[in-house]
Amino acid sequence: MTLSEQQLSLIEEFGVYQENNGFQPAVARVMGLLLVSDRAELTFDEISEALNISKSATSNALNMLLNTGHIEYTTFPGDRKRYFRIKSSNWRDLFEKKMEDLSHLNGLLKRVMDVRKRENPIYDAKLNDFISFLDYMKNRMPSLIHEWEKTRK
User: Fold this and answer.
1) Locate the HTH marR-type domain: which residues (predicted)?
2) pTM of the full predicted structure?
3) pLDDT digits over 132-147, tens only?
4) Do 123 and 82 lie in a common domain?
């Protein structure tokens, strides 16, 4: 598989972005490759070769992405290989999970405010602003999604 300089650069940029969100480097680059590849599905060997990573790193990355629901694979009759692809149908599930995570964080921050001594009013004000924003976002998000869906019809 031949990738353009633009594709390679974007894989790297996406990889760095995902690393900053807690992904391991190989996992992040596999996701980037599957997103920018001209083909929707890639084999294990194509992924390993395109990213120049070991078979072990490729296997670990694919297993992690499969287990977290970021990718899926398909097979074709007469071909024993698995073909991996981004599981694009689950973006809503991933978004809902992120919103649940933020809601959990918000609950934790509220509990932090309950147990903290009030010796730093500037910090408390900033933390309360963040809590308030998370509350606002949680309340507004369903209507934003609904409004967006109406534009899609």
Assistant:
1) 22-82
2) 0.74
3) 999 999 999 889 988 9
4) no
Q: What are phi and psi of 7, to 5 degrees?
A: -65, -45
Could you give the count of Cα atoms lying within 13 Å of 44 in the half-sphere of its Cβ? Answer: 15
Same domain, 95 and 77: no
Domain end residue (candidates: 86, 112, 134) = 86
Same domain, 144 and 110: yes
Got the DSSP string for 60-91? HHHHHHHHTTSEEEEEETTEEEEEEEE-GGGH
Through-space distance between the first and last CA atoms of the chain, rounded to whole angstroms: 37
Q: What's the number of domains the chain is made of? A: 2
Q: How confident is the model at residue 119 (pLDDT cuts 50, 70, 90)?
A: confident
At 4 the three-state DSSP class reads coil
Q: Which of 61, 94, 87, 60 minimizes the C-alpha distance to 73?
A: 87
Chain segment 24-37, per-residue pLDDT in tens: 999 999 999 999 99
